[in-house]
Design goal:
alpha+beta; 3 domains; 5-stranded antiparallel beta sheet; about 30% helix; rod-shaped
């Protein structure tokens, strides 16, 4: 029964409200129609405030409260799914599980095999310094652990050093190549092994606790056999020190692997990302908004 019929049904019968051709029915129907329109508008307003039913600009306004703007080319259904995930994130925080589920929702996959999160991912790092005998420098592992580095030492062209030695002054660890290193050659030192231009010279290595790169950092020193006897202006003794025209510079390169601190890596299978129609940059922006302050993140396609 329509609204107009219900209203007419309350009138006395002699008003002929039951007669759809009567003036009374027409008069009441006009009011009932306005009330029906008002109900429809109220229902539309309610639907615009619900994620499940809002569309277009109404959905954009809801999304602005919990996530960023709609991505380019993102339809209502995908955007709606992302908003739902965002609400879940607010309850679960930036946890691994919350981020994993959110990225899965973003790219539209139900398989956890398509998305993986690696905490403290393994990094390949390096650092290079240029020093001469007696100089020191500070270096850290920049990872969550102490590491044993690979150390490459080379001398500037025309230079020559004897028994080059590296010492971690904090731990006391020392490694020495017992021999002469000349310009154009490179010695590679690692724990338990040494090579000179690719040739094994492990038997020429003297180690007293192979020096580690410490996570908190430490001071290192380079020295050689003659460095203690080199003449220094205004302090050397004529019959005790060796005087030389120039002390050669060495290039020392540290290479190591370690787990990155306060960071995580999101790995997405290339097929899943392609099906989503999104770019890596889209996922990176999405993930960066979810991670905690001070935590680094990156996205890698595999």
């Amino acid at each position: 029964m329509s609204r107009a019929e219900k209203m007419c049904d309350r009138l006395p019968k002699f008003y002929r409200g039951w007669d759809r051709g009567s003036l009374v029915y027409a008069f009441i129907s006009s009011f009932a129609s306005q009330l029906d329109d008002a109900d429809d508008q109220i229902a539309e307003i309610m639907r615009a405030h619900w994620v499940d039913s809002a569309t277009g600009q109404d959905l954009d306004r809801l999304g602005a409260a919990v996530v960023s703007k709609r991505m380019q080319g993102e339809d209502d259904e995908k955007y709606r799914s992302r908003i739902r995930r965002a609400v879940s994130d607010y309850r679960g925080g930036g946890t691994v599980r919350a981020i994993l589920e959110s990225v899965m929702g973003l790219i539209g996959t139900a398989s956890e095999g398509d998305v993986e999160i690696i905490e403290n991912p393994l990094l390949t790092l390096s650092e290079e310094v240029k020093v001469m005998a007696g100089e020191t420098w500070t270096i850290s592992s920049r990872t969550v652990e102490d590491v044993d580095p690979r150390i490459r030492i080379s001398v500037e062209e025309g230079g020559e050093v004897k028994d080059p030695t590296l010492t971690n002054l904090k731990t006391g660890g020392t490694v020495t190549f017992k021999g002469t290193l000349v310009g154009g050659k490179e010695i590679m030192l690692s724990k338990g092994k040494a090579e000179l231009n690719g040739e094994d010279v492990t038997d020429k290595i003297e180690v007293k606790g192979f020096p580690k790169l410490l996570r908190e950092g430490s001071i290192w020193k380079y020295s050689e056999s003659l460095s203690g006897l080199l003449g220094v202006f205004d302090s050397a003794k004529f019959d005790e020190h060796t005087f030389t025209k120039g002390i050669p510079y060495l290039t020392i390169r540290f290479e190591w692997e370690g787990h990155a601190p306060a960071s995580f890596e999101v790995r997405i299978k290339s097929g899943a990302l392609k099906r989503s129609g999104l770019e890596v940059a889209d996922v990176e922006r999405f993930v960066s908004r979810m991670r905690a302050a001070g935590v680094a993140s990156r996205v890698r396609v595999i």
